[in-house]
Structure formats: structure tokens, C-alpha cells
């Protein structure tokens, strides 16, 4: 092949090769496709702190923060006045004594009020009941007096424990509060004291409480072994998991700072479930009466409805329950004190139809199961 014919061919081939690789020489590096804006990960900015709201929501779990600023000396003086009033009102009506006994926990002496008939029967002649007061740091109040008097007149011996955390006994006793824990043992230990009284029949023992006292009452009979033949819980606290959420931080502070709690339900759920009677319903083995009110603004009906429904569905043969619809309220908490209406000056009942009905049912319930009218110290043929 001649050179003049070969050169144009080579030049043409080189031109075609250059045209084929030119786009690649100037192309941009390939990039990973970017996701749509909505799919891109974003870092959320920290919310602006509101110091006032944070202060309102903060709940300490430090026992040193329990009951700050409490005037314990004033509590002691007020308790002395309560004791004196009980003593004065009981004169000529019933035998009143202030006693103490050792808690089965073994670390505290528990004060208690003891009310007995003036004329006592012989051995095992009387049925007896433990009456448990309410309130977070509450105590036995003279407003219970007319109902205690009626119980004694019916033949009962009544003991009212001032379990740990009750007010009027100094700072150490106050801060020993153990809601749903050792306080239950403190209250049940009153049975050991009652057994030292020869005229009390240990086979006819009952327990009754209001609000927090109803909570303790439920705990007492929602266990495998206990000495009670019957129990009554009026407007009882039942579910701490629900209750602390419903009531909020202001209420939670009385719990989270307790020595044996030190936290809230979301931190210690198993502990709070253990201390909530609602979850122990299946252990009930003795007759139980429960009365609640729909207009209760302390133990709100949405809480008590849970225990009513559980008892009606799972223990219908043992539980006697009643819901009072919007009864006239007492001094506080709406319908929370509907069955404890007492004139503070005269210490007489301030009856409403609902209060009369509740107590009539309560007395009938206990008379059926504890038979306070029977004097077992007398031969059977001499019984009325």
C-alpha cells in the first residue's frame, strides 16, 4: 500500500477514537443520589428550658427532701389536744386508753387508741375491730368519735393504730412513712395487742378503714394469711400506679421521697404494683364491704371504679359493693368524706340519707359476720 493512501486512513481512525473518548475525559465524578429532603436525618434542636415549669414538674427521690419545713412540734401539741378531747368525750360513755405495742417489723412502738365498753364481758365475750385512719401523714381524728361510740355500744372493742408516718409523734416517726409497706404490718400488729385482752375473742376480728386506711385494710385481707373474719374499705386508695400519674408532681413528692420507695412508678413499676391492692383481688378469701362515691375528688371515682369492677367480676360471692351517686360532700374532697360527717363542736353525726344508708349497711355486714351481740363467756343456754 502506498504511503499517501495509508496516512489519511490512520488519521481518520485516530479522529474517530478521539471523538469516542472525549465525553469521558470531561465528565463529572458520579455522585450518590441524595434522598428527598423529607428523608434526610435531622438533629432536633434542644427545647428551650422553662425554669418555672421544670421546677413545678421536678420530683425528688431523696428522703432528705421529705416534708420540708414541717412543724413537728405543732403536730405534737395538736395530738395532745386530740387525746384530751377523746378522753373528755369518752367519760361515762366508754373506756378510753392510749396504748402502745411493738410493730411486727420490730423497729417501732406504735401508739394506738383503745375504746372498750365500760362493763366488759368475760373471756372471749367481745368481738373486736381494727379501725385504720386515712391521710398521707394523717392521724386518728375526733371526727370519728360518734361512729366509734356506736361500735362500742354494739359490743365491739375498737383499736385505732397510729401507724408509722402518722402525725403528732415527732420527726423520726413522721419520716418513717412506708405507704403500702411496713405501715400495713404496723396496723395488723394491733391484733397481737388485742389477743392480750382476755375479753376479746380472737375468732371474731374485723378491720375497717377509710381512704388510705381503706388501702391498708385491702392490703390486710389481700394476702395469703391473716386473722380477720370480715373487712370494710370505704372510699379506699387502690391503684398507686394510676393514682400518682393522675394526681401529678405535687402529690408524687409525698411518695418518691419515702425511704423505702425513693422513686416513682415508671422507675420502680414492680414495687408500685406490689403496693397497689387492685392487683391482689384474687387473694380475697373473707367477706369484704366497699363503698365509694362518684363525686369523690380525693380518691377519684375513676380509681375506685377499678376495684369495684374487679371485685364484682372476680369475687362476687365475697364482695359487697355499693356506689353512691353524688352524695352530699363532707368537709373536703367532695364526696370523699360522705360517710364521716360529724359536727366538730358536738361530736355528733351530721346525717344525710347516704351516710345513714352506708352505716346501716356497714353495721349489718359486721353483725352478720362478727356477731358482736354474742357473749361467748356465758353458757349457751343463757344467751338471749
Topology:
Layout: H1 3-26, H2 51-57, H3 72-90, E1 95-102, E2 109-116, E3 126-132, H4 145-153, E4 157-161, H5 171-175, H6 182-188, H7 190-194, E5 200-210, H8 212-221, E6 230-234, H9 240-247, H10 249-256, H11 269-274, E7 288-293, H12 301-314, E8 319-324, H13 353-370
Helix pairs in contact: 6-8
Description:
- With 384 residues, the protein is an alpha/beta fold.
- It has one domain: Rossmann fold.
- Helices cover 36% and strands 15% of the residues.
- It has helices at 3-26, 51-57, 72-90, 145-153, 171-175, 182-188, 190-194, 212-221, 240-247, 249-256, 269-274, 301-314, 353-370; strands at residues 95-102, 109-116, 126-132, 157-161, 200-210, 230-234, 288-293, 319-324.
- Strands 1-2-4-3-5-6-7-8 form an eight-stranded mixed β-sheet, sandwiched between helices.
- Helix 6 (182-188) crosses helix 8 (212-221).
- The protein is globular and about 100 Å long.
- It starts with a helix and ends in a 14-residue tail after the last helix.
- The mean pLDDT is 91.
Q: Can you give keywords for this protein?
A:
8 strands; 8-stranded mixed sheet; Rossmann fold; 384 residues; single chain; 13 helices
| SSE series | HHHEEEHEHHHEHEHHHEHEH
What is the count of β-strands? 8
Per DSSP, the total helix count is 13
CATH topology: Rossmann fold
Task: Kindly summarize this structure in a few lines.
The chain is of the alpha/beta class.
Amino acid at each position: 500500500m502506498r504511503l499517501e493512501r495509508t496516512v489519511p486512513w490512520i488519521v481518520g481512525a485516530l479522529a474517530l477514537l478521539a471523538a469516542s473518548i472525549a465525553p469521558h475525559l470531561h465528565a463529572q465524578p458520579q455522585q450518590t443520589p441524595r434522598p428527598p429532603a423529607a428523608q434526610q436525618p435531622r438533629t432536633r434542636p434542644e427545647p428551650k428550658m422553662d425554669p418555672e415549669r421544670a421546677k413545678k414538674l421536678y420530683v425528688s427521690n431523696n428522703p432528705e427532701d421529705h416534708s420540708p419545713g414541717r412543724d413537728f412540734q405543732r403536730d405534737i401539741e395538736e395530738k395532745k389536744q386530740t387525746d384530751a378531747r377523746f378522753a373528755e368525750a369518752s367519760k361515762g360513755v366508754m373506756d378510753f386508753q392510749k396504748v402502745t405495742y411493738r410493730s411486727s417489723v420490730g423497729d417501732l412502738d406504735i401508739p394506738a387508741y383503745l375504746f372498750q365498753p365500760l362493763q366488759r364481758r368475760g373471756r372471749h365475750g367481745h368481738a373486736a375491730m381494727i379501725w385504720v385512719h386515712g391521710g398521707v401523714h394523717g392521724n386518728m381524728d375526733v371526727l370519728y368519735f360518734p361512729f366509734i361510740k356506736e361500735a362500742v355500744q354494739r359490743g365491739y372493742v375498737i383499736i385505732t393504730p397510729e401507724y408509722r408516718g402518722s402525725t403528732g409523734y415527732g420527726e423520726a416517726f413522721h419520716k418513717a412513712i412506708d405507704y403500702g409497706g411496713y405501715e400495713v404490718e404496723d396496723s395488723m400488729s394491733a391484733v397481737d395487742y388485742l389477743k392480750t385482752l382476755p375479753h376479746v375473742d380472737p375468732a371474731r376480728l374485723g378491720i375497717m378503714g377509710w381512704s388510705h386506711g381503706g388501702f391498708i385494710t385491702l392490703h390486710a385481707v389481700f394476702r395469703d394469711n391473716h386473722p380477720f373474719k370480715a373487712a370494710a374499705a370505704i372510699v379506699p386508695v387502690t391503684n398507686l400506679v394510676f393514682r400518682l400519674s393522675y394526681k401529678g408532681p405535687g402529690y408524687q413528692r409525698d411518695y418518691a421521697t419515702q425511704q423505702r420507695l425513693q422513686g416513682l412508678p415508671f422507675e420502680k413499676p414492680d414495687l408500685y404494683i406490689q403496693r397497689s391492692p387492685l392487683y391482689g383481688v384474687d387473694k380475697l378469701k373473707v367477706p369484704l364491704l366497699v363503698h365509694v362515691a362518684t363525686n369523690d375528688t380525693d380518691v377519684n371515682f375513676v380509681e375506685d371504679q377499678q376495684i369495684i369492677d374487679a371485685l364484682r367480676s372476680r369475687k362476687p360471692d365475697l364482695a359487697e359493693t355499693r356506689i353512691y351517686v353524688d352524695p352530699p360532700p363532707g368537709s373536703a374532697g367532695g364526696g370523699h368524706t360522705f360517710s364521716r360527717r360529724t359536727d366538730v363542736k358536738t361530736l355528733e353525726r351530721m346525717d344525710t340519707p347516704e351516710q345513714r344508708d352506708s352505716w346501716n349497711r356497714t353495721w349489718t355486714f359486721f353483725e352478720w359476720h362478727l356477731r358482736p351481740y354474742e357473749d361467748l363467756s356465758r353458757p349457751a343456754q343463757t344467751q338471749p
